[in-house]
Each structure stands twice: as C-alpha cells, then as structure tokens.
Amino acid sequence: MKIYKISKLFIFIILVSTFAAKGQQVTGLSNWNIYLDPGHSQFENMGIYGYSEAEKNLRVGLHLRQMLLDWTDIDTVYICRENDSVQISLQQRTDQANALGAAHYHSIHSDASSSPTPNSTLLLWGQLGINGPEKNPPGGKKMSDIMVVLLTAAMRIPTRGSVGDRTFYNVPGSTPYLWVNRETNMASELSEAGFHTNPTQNQRNMNELWKRMEAKTMFWTILKYHNLPRPYAGTVAGIISDFESGLPINGAIVEINGQVDTTDTWESLFYRFTNDPDLLRNGFYYFENIPQGTHPIKFYRNGYDTISTTVTMQDTFITFKDIQMISNTPPTVASTSPANDTLYPGYESFVINFTRQMDRTSTENAISINPSVGVTFSWSNSDRTLSINTSNFAFNSSYQITVNPTAQGKYGHPFDGNGDGTPGDAYSKTIYTKPQDMTAPQILSVYPNPNSTNVEIKPIVNILFNEPVSASTVSGKVKVLRNSNNTFANGILRFYTVNGKSAINFFVTSLLAENETYTIQLLPGIKDIYGNEITAQNDFTFTTGNNTYNQLLLIDNFENGVGSWWQPTQSGSTIGVNPANTTMALNSSIVNLNTGSTKSMQLNYDWNTSASSWLIREKYTPVTPTFDNSNILQTYVWGDGSGNYFRFCVIDQGVGGYEVSPWYEIDWVGWKAVNWNLAEGQTGNWLGNGILEPPLRIDSYQLTYFPGNVSSGTLYFDDLRIVNFAPLSVEQTDPEIPVSYKLEQNYPNPFNPSTKIRFSIPEQTPVKIIVSDILGREIVTLVNDVLNAGNYEVEFPNVETGHALSLPSGVYFYTLITDNFKQSKKMILTK
Questions:
Q1: Which of 5, 43, 403, 413 could disulfide-link to 427, CB 3.0 to 4.6 Å?
Q2: pLDDT tens readout for residues 438-464
Q3: Host H or E run for residue 361
Q4: Could you tell me the pTM of the whole model?
C-alpha cells in the first residue's frame, strides 16, 4: 500500500492497494475507486453521554477502508481524514474528491434530534428538484437503495428509506440540496446510521465492533452495487441483556470457535464518558470468520448462570444471536416501608422490596409474624414488591416480621436474608403500630396567605393538610366568598394526595374583583382516612390588588407535546440519579387549570441516595424565543411536598453563558406559580458569572435532592413563560414585541468559530433564514418555521440543531425571508 500526499494545503490521505492475490478475496474493482468522507471533524456533533458523531463516523470509515483494501482488488480508496485532530471543511472534501477524479463519493453520518426517542436509518442521494430525477452522473440512488436495506437489517432499527435530498428536505431547487451531493462531480450519497442523540444507539456507537458492523454493511453494499458475488459472511453478533431488567450486561464473555469477545465495561470503555460505573451499557458482541455450519456458543459472567447453546450460521448476512442471562445473585431485601417509622394498622401495609423477582408461594410460606396474626399478601413491581395487609394488627403494638431462608427467587435462587452474598439466612424486622388516630386533619398552610394583601386577581387557592384525607369528603367543601356582596367566585376544585399529605387546589375560573376582600371558606365535613372529621368551618381572609400575571411571551405550554425537551439523563450534567426511573413524558391528566391547559410535562425522578451530589438538568433545546431581564420568568409546578429543590437555568451572553435562579424548596403539594424576577438580578451558583446579560433564552429546569428527603416521585410542569405583575386594564408594552421587521447585523463579525444572528417580526408569519456563499449557493437553512411575533436569535454554525458546518474563510450572506419581507446581510468568517 502506497500513501501519497496531494498538497500541503490539504491533509488528505490517498490509499492505493497493491495487495498480492493471496489477500484478494473479491475481484472486479481493480478499475474503480471511492472517496470516503467520515462526516464532520474532531469531536463535532456531540451525542448523548459525550460521544460525538465525528468520532463514530471516522472509525466506520477506517474500517470500511481496511475491508476494501484487504478483501478486494480495488484500485484506490481515498479517505478525507484518519484521526481526530484534523479539521476539514465541506468544501475541502468535495474539492479534493473532484480534483482526484474519484469514481464515487460516500459520506458517513449519524443523525440528531431534540428528542431522545427517534432512531432510524436514512440514505440521501442527490436530486434535481422535489420529486425530481437523480443528479448526473447517476449511481448514488442505486447505492443508496442497496445500502439502506443492509444497514437497516444490521442495526435492527426502523428506516426512513432511500430518498432524494430535495424531496426529503422539501426544499425547491434545481440542484442537489446537500453539499456533498451538490458539489461533487461523481455519483454520491450520504448515510445516516441511527441517531447519536438516542441513548441506546449512542451507547452501541461507542463499541468499536459495532462501528465495524456498520462498515461491513457498506462493504457488502459496494459489492452488490457492482454485481459482484458477496463472500460468505461468517459473522455472528448480538445483544446480551439481563432477563429480569432487560438492561444490557457489561462484562459478559462470549466464546465461539476458539474466539472470545467481552462486552464493554466501565473499566474498558465507559469511564471515558461518565464517573458512574452503572450508567452506560450496550451488551454488544461480534465475531468474524466463523465457519459455516452449527457451532457451540457459550455466554458467561460472574453473577449469572452460564448459557451454553448453539448457533447456525447464515451464509450471506450477519447471524444474530441475542441472549438474556439470568442472574444467580441471591435475592435479598432492598428496603421496607415504613423504613424507620411506625404505621397505622389497617390503613398502611408493611411493604418489603426485594432486589429480585420472587417466587410467590415459597416467599409467602417463609414469612412468620410474632405475635401471630392473620395477614393477606399482594404483589407488585413484577413480583419484587410484597405488601402485607395490617388490618388485623393491633394499635400501639410491636410485631416481628421474619422472612425465613426457605424463600426463593422466581428462578429458584435461595434467599439471602442478611445481604452478605451467601444465601441461607433469615431477614427480620420489628415494626411498631401507632396509637389509634383520634385527631381530625390539621391545616399546614393556605394560599393566598391569611391576611395577605395585593393578591393576584386570578390565584390558585391551595389548602395543605398534614395527612391524607378522604377524597369522597372533599367535594364542595372549599368556597371563595367576596365579602362586600356575599357572592362566591367560580372555580374548579382538584384534590391531590402524595407523600403522606393531601392538598386541595381551587382554580379561580374568572378574575376576582380588584381591591376586594375575600374569604376562603373550608366547610366542615372533611375527614381523614380514619374517619376523623373537621367539624368547624375554617375561614382565611385575603385582599386582592389590581394586578395579575400578564403573559408577555410564551415559551412552552406543552400543548404541542414535549419534543423540545430532552430526557433528563440525556444531559451529561445530570448526576446522582437512577437512570431507568428518571424520565420525562407528556401528561394530560394533571394540568394547570388556571390557564386552561390540557397538557403538562411529567418528570419522574429517582435519586441515588448513595451518590455524593445530585442534579437533574431537564434541558430545553430550541434557541428561540429570547427575552431580556426586565420581567418575570414563570412556570407552574405541581409539587409533591418532598422538600427537594427546583430552579430555572437560562443561557445568556456572559462568561460561562449559563445563569440559574436561586433554589426553590418544593414544600407544597399541587399547583403553584414559581417566579424568578429577572429584574431583581438575583442568581444562584452554577456555570455563569452571576450576572444576567441579555438576550436570554431557556436552558433547562433543574432539580436537586436534599439528603433525608423523599428520594423518588413525580413532578409536573406547565406554562413556561415571561410575565409581568401589573394591572390587567393597563395596556402592556412588551419590550420583546417589535413594531417592524428587522434583521440585525450578526455579532461577532468577523467571526470564528460561530456568530449570533438576531431578527424581529411584528406578527405571526412563516420565517426562513438561509446562509449562502459569495456565489449565491445555499449552504444551510437556519430557520424554517412559523413563528410568533417577537425577537429571535440563532447561532451559526449551531451543533445543537444539526450538523455543524466546516467552512473555509470568506464572505457569506444570511437572508431573512417572510411573506412580507426579505433582507440580506454580509458576514465574514476568518480562520
């Protein structure tokens, strides 16, 4: 193999294969060559958990290059980069391929999304107009049609197909849309192998052999493209996972035909991306050169039952053999509830949480209670949680509950009572029952605060009790009386019980009168779950002002879903959680009726109490809208009374770029408006300089755990917006609503590596911002959406919203286009 350097200007490697016949398994490519373009450079397009698309693409390209050179008689293989140091622009790549006269151009990529859910393959070939023909010279479509089938079959994920680039992006034009298709003088295509923003996919992308498998599908594609016979595949691959949890297993060993592979571990790979040894896992194994026929294959790992089975090889494709292994770790007790407190007999169950699924019959038979009492059992959490009904327990008494060693796990593994790893001993717990409850529910807090003044004229009334109350006794028990004329305010009542407390929310559905005194009446008849009744009426008085919260700028009310938000563990800043139980979703049952909402964002949290620090960063991905620091950043939070903490985070223009609000203790149950008055300038401590420097935009909601508080639960968020607190009757002047169309000069200009482009629109309208070079060739569309009136800002290039662009120094133009306005400005990139 000879290596030639084309020039000092470009750092490109040309590889020419001159292997002897012994190394050539496939002939027929001796008069053909290909230019491989592993998309992006260095560590661009960072994926979830800190592994970049650029790193993945490069290694796929290197594997494909090696396969072509080692396994065929190909004339030449070009590759634009072969390390993570070189920075190569799109124009350098296509110019070099054209100068070399390459016969074919293949660009290797993976895709990205603001949501962690999408994951699919896609092949894009150069197209002359929407639904138009393939570019000339042809061949990219044929290669794409073949590759999308093989790549999808290997990755075992959905596909969006093989599509012309103009049709896929739905952008009119007479030339191919993608740079690599438009600027190349040979047949070309671009592959998107899954989404590096998908947690499962990017953990697999980290594995070197996974990247080799991706390359092999491209190798087979090239053979089929040339109608060459595909050699015997000889490849076995699969995912090894835990039978009970479904999670991939780290450190599983596979043996077949004298070869051994071990799935990735924290020590071997994942330490590069996380300090948490339990966070990342892919369970992927891979073998090549396995002969035809049926072969014994063995799977084993410490803590799991060994599996010995067979695999019969396919002759033309990868043979997949997924395995679920069963842990042989003895089950033990993970926790009990109540943990360190007494319980009310008959109203609370004694709950045992086991570390593994249990055999119901042997476990129930193994339980003894002293003094003896009749009980009934119920199971949940896939037979990991056992609830013992305490209806027959006496008040103010003690009981010793024992799980004897005869209990077994669901798969026959004996019980380990003391948790030392050796089965054969009992678990015992002494519990205490409380004296009989003879006290009616107590009121812990009321909002609006009793005797408070200048209260907003559309509040959410909240009454919090110290214990669970009976839902059937709540209806009609809360009224809001206008004292001056003895009329009642209209409203909707909602009732919530969580973490041992109950709350009543009364959503006022029409504005209260200004500067009036009102009385919250809690009528008699509310009972706790033990039948104790509030027998007297409780009255709480407050006085309104003439102010309310006026929405100036809506950021997200979740009515269109949660696609703009990441899963909490998708952010590398999230730490100290149990990932499987820390998730985000859309909810349509617990919503903020104060604004007429029908959807909210549900955030399930599960803190790892053994960690040393805790943070959930629930990230918002859009770069618009922006706002200044003259008003209030507000969101409604459904609290669970956990005593943990919440705060806002914004991105600004200062040092560090991230500013946070002070922490707000979640000491309420039900809905509450949480306000950060930006005009006061009060900030917390995180990454920024402590100064709010507009324009600002939302980065995230953030949560943290306080040791000793509730460690798991659910919160809900709704109506994230900019508001002021002012008279409703006074016309509001929103500094963020412009009076005319405006495209501002980008800043900085000249720029390197990125710049900000700001624009304003006075009304809702379709908006497009495109960037083009000095010859008028379109490079990228930064905005293509219907936007509300407001001030906006986009970054160019922006790695968060798609593929970052590597451009040469020079003059570029950005253009704002709406139905009623078009304007261009010039910017200069210097390198």
A1: 403
A2: 899 999 999 999 999 999 999 999 999
A3: helix 360-365
A4: 0.63
